[in-house]
Amino acid sequence: MLEEQFSRLIRESAMTWLDARPREQVDYAWLSTFEYEGQRIPLMDRQRGIRKPASMNAALSMRTVFTKPGDTPPYADAEGKDGLQRYKYRGDDPQHSENRALRRAHEDGLPLIWFVGIAASLYQPIYPVWIVGDELQDLQFALALDEGQRLITPGTSVSEDTKRYVERTTRARLHQPMFRARVLSAYKSRCAVCQLGHVQLLDAAHIISDSKPHGDPVVPNGLAMCKIHHAAFDSNILGVRPDLSVHIRQDILDEIDGPMLRHGLQGMHNQKLTPPLVRLAQPDPGRLDERYSEFLAH
């Protein structure tokens, strides 16, 4: 009981520390500086995917490594039919020490920190998450991303309302943060339209909305945009042609107003976007064509 209380205190302290992190994404070097009552406790293991400090009986964190666009991930973490996220075992031995450490966190109902790779050696922390199911036959654990998801029994049929709730929560707590992090990383934290480089003023814009077919939260379906250009894109004031050139709607080009309109929008007409250098991270031409047709229809 004392160990479990100690474990909970460390977790609360670690998550509070992460709340105050200076950057949205983190790396091993920074995560290794966490201390609890004068004791240094790195939050990520350099070699292992699952972190269980020697002073604890259960896992503290887990990691999903970054996979380059077009590559196959080493572990096929995915959602189940119940909408809950899955996390694959380490290897195919359920009794591997790392799997036992996660199983202990499940048995004790302890929250975990999930570090999801968004670039080489760079991670987005997602927390708190809980293990709510141990699916031995599939060599995986079922995860809950909030308290509400903890009430769902993994592998069971759920109502449409419940499934929509699970999907909304997963989108808000996992897909959207990861989409933003990966898109901004691919574009080197600069607006593709105007090259503004202040990350606080940048968004990851979906080319195809995530409510539509082909609206997957993947980098080729995203554009890094400052907030003014994102809003203009979403409201069909600004369109992007498949050749990556910007089209400003004619009524906006004809309007007379202040410097923001003149330089921020009108001045962008027929300018080329600046895409990522990595080809597989560049905007998908098919999605751009579909979205540009929608822009022209307005």
| Outline type | elongated
Q: Given this structure, which CATH class of the largest domain is correct?
A: Mainly Beta
Question: At the third CATH level, what is the topology name of the largest domain?
Answer: PUA domain-like
Residue stretches low in confidence (pLDDT < 50, at least 5 long) are: none
> What is the radius of gyration computed over CA atoms, rounded to a whole number of angstroms?
22 Å
Number of strands: 12
Structural class: alpha+beta
Question: N-to-C SSE series?
Answer: HHEEEEEHEEEHEEHEEHHH
Task: Give an overview in words.
The chain is α+β, with helices and mostly antiparallel strands and about 300 residues long. The chain has 2 domains: about 1-175, PUA domain-like; about 185-295, no CATH class. Helices cover about 30% and strands about 20% of the residues. It contains 8 helices and 12 strands. The chain has helices spanning about 1-20, 30, 95-110, 160-185, 225-235, 250-255, 260-265, 285-295; strands at about 35, 40, 50, 60-65, 85-90, 110-120, 120-135, 140-145, 200-205, 220-225, 240, 245-250. The strands form 4 sheets. A 6-stranded mixed β-sheet has the order 3-4-6-7-8-5. A hairpin with a 4-residue loop joins strand 7 (about 120-135) and strand 8 (about 140-145). About 35% of the residues are buried. The model has no long low-confidence stretch (mean pLDDT about 95). InterPro entries: HNH_nuc. Keywords: Endonuclease, Hydrolase, Nuclease. GO terms for molecular function: endonuclease activity.
